[in-house]
Design goal:
Blueprint lengths: L3 E2 L1 E4 L3 H12 L4 E4 L12 E5 L2 H5 L11 E13 L4 E7 L10 E5 H17 L8 E3 L6 E4 L5 E6 L2 E5 L2 E3 L6 H5 L12 E10 L2 H8 L5 E8 L1 H4 L4 E7 L3 E9 H7 L8 H9 L2 H7 L3 E11 L11 E2 L2 E3 L8 E2 L4 E2 L1 H21 L4 H13 L1 H8 L1 H7 L2 H19 L9 H12 L2 H14 L1
Helix pairs in contact: 1-3, 1-10, 10-11, 13-16, 14-15
Amino acid sequence: MEESFDCIIVGGGIAGLSAAMVLARNDAQFLLIERGEFSGSKNVSGGVLWGRDLARLVPEYWKDDTAAFERFITHRRLTLMDDESAFSLDYKSDAYAEPPYMGVSVLRSRFDRWLADQVESAIADSAHPYGSFLATNVRVDEVLQNDSGRATGIRAGDETFHADSVLIAEGVNNLLTRQVGLHDDYVPADHMMVGVKEVIGFEESTLEDRFQLNGDSGLTNEFVGAAATGGVEGGGFLYTNEDSVSIGLVLGMEDLREKGDPESESTPYDLLTEFKQHPVVRDMIQGGEVLEYSAHTVSNGDIDGMPREIYDDGLLVAGEAANLLLNAGRAIQGMDYAMRSGILAAETVLEAKEAGDFSADMLQNYRAALESSFVLKDMRRFQNAVHLLHREEMVDLLPTLVCDLGHKFFQVDGTPSKKVHKLFRESVNEHASYWELVKLGYNATRSL
């Protein structure tokens, strides 16, 4: 008799591994299939994993000398840029220095591999140490469905594997989600962005001195302004790792396509190069060595970019495959959404196993759980903020106005100084109108 699993997980990223950990801890039998040589082998660079779900999956992970996080985040900075200057909002607090941390920076190639090792340990400690497997270097070509459309397993080349449920956690290039009919052939370009990123290495002591880091503490810095992105919709970021920084841009795909020209400096790599040459950024990365370069497609956080549904008969979709991401101005949240959705998907599989029912009626509990979690609550609550951040006023007008006001306010040149309200009026008259600012402020207040 052919072996059948409780669940087949397609994808060994954060969503898939988080689901696998929950299943292993609850003695379910599963098969996780990863296309890369190992979990994380297809991922370079990284970002910040926000929230405390990691401590839930790996209790007291911070005490593990092998734990593959880089730094815990205690310092947040938002920088508005024009062509030659920058104005930053800066917040630093030791309140974020106590575990379980608010956020940790990670390099995905290291972090995913470590998390996979934790899953392997959980399998070994489970009631079925030989009943679950992590299979790497395998590409899933098709989700198998019976005549009624229920998912029954997967096909990889000439081999088929069967299960009561299939969890698609394949990432943003969601070929299988489209194959099973939960997503359109292609996500519209105005719902997608292109992330370009470099990892730049430093001596650890140099990094800590330059960014005023204490021990394993870390910094995140987001950048807003046409000067950061070459006028393309989007923004920049910099995160500190143990002995490197991850630096890059996230660019609107549709806007990039309309403004991009291979013969001009509008390709993603060229825009990143220009960003790194801005006076403020240049000083931050001076003397570093480029270790990695990567480009990646991501959702822009518009909830309309999600699949039509994230469950069906015998089927669940989690993480980037479900286009779960949010950038509402406070942080770029994606990995924490992947982790929470993977956890909730696995918990739903366990409920279905106990009930002996893997129908859509049962698996819709996953949707309900995700709706009740911070993931979809925040995605719905901050949709106006997502749209606001992509407006031209946020990319051009506001950073230019704020930097000009900063230039006027901080200038000391031996001439009589003006009151702030007069400086503000001058900047507004030069770059905008009071009515534009009132509308922008009103929209920002309601959105955020």
